[in-house]
Amino acid sequence: MPIATGTFETPLAMRYVQQMSREFTDTEPNEAGDCSQVALPGGGTARLQAGENGLTVTLMSDDPQVIDRCKRVIEGYFAHVAAGAPIVPIWIDSDA
After folding, report:
1. Per-residue confidence at 88, pLDDT binned at 50, 70, 90?
2. Domain 2-95 falls under CATH 3.30.310.50
């Protein structure tokens, strides 16, 4: 299964996990508020993990084209919500 992992350096990682959980799937993150899994528009799943140095987003789908669309969805989300301080991800693609 194709996987893409993006790292976003931000001190607001936990806030983004919570916001993205509510916005994409109308759910809440785990009890600690630092991890969630959401379904993205156009297919694909994103696992969101807030850490000390930022947010890690792991995209999963059986279709590499869906992974590419999911990257654009996540990047577009950050371009919209972090307009004052753009967050640029570093993506690493792999197969699980």
Report:
1. confident
2. yes
